[in-house]
Amino acid sequence: MKFVAFERAKQGTGASRRLRITGRTPGIVYGGAAEALQIEIDHNALWHALKKEAFHSTVLDMEIDGKDSKVLLRDVQMHPFKQLILHIDFQRVDATTRLHAKVPLHYSGDENSAAIKTDGCVANHVITEIEVLCLPADLPEFIAVDLSGLKKGASLHLADITLPKGVTAVPHGGNKNPVLVSVVAIAGAELPAAEAGAAAAPAAGGKPAAGGKAAPAAKAPAAKKK
Q: How far apart are CA 23 and CA 184, in angstroms?
């Protein structure tokens, strides 16, 4: 994705407040051999760009004074209750240096798995993004995860998915193999047909089993007339 930014001359709280009044958002670009650069971006254009997933997870082309440079979104500060972007940070990207970035996980196919279709379970998406280490050229926009093989009682771990070439997962909170998707049985799910039939059968002595009805009592034979 590409966006246009402008170099910002004035700095400070007052200058940033006046900049926001004019419909611009203050920001900064740092990293690499160059010094940190103060920038400003059109607020409306930035607002719509932030709604796109790729703006958060891919290397961006930033144009300043007709020159393009590669950057990665690092931080966004939002107003507590207004639809207003207060400040934004970007990091310069070097094509030969590996970078850390968060990549979203796109899950699909769980409705076709045995766990969901026949075993009365639900798939709980525990983690929706992972942090990876790779060169800028290898950074994926997202990682697709197929859940059609989910089975009852088995969860999907990070080690179970195939990462794109050149991409290495960074341990999540110190855990090298966290659970991505857990399979949870639904309480009160229907029993298989054989078990349901047995449960409905009457117990000995004419008393009903749980959820079943009592069989009618047998009538005594009538006495013969002499």
A: 48
